Amino acid sequence: xxxxxxxxxxxxxxxxxxxxxPSLEDEIEFQRQAKxxxxxxxGAKGTPVTEETFKAWQDKKKKRNxxxx
Length: 69
Fold this sequence. Notes:
This protein is 68% helix and 0% strand. By secondary structure, the protein is mainly alpha-helical. The longest helix is centred in the middle third of the chain and has 19 residues, at 24-42.
């Protein structure tokens, strides 16, 4: 249900339910959708991730973790 609705529509629908108790997942989804909307409004795009950049990031992270141990 959440993925098919906008953040405002989802929040309104959930608030109508008297038994609704906000969960952590709901809060995360609200924040995620707000951020997506903010990016759309400003025309900014997220960081493009390619297989090469992901692999480079993953290798750096593994190296940092090994050095920390």
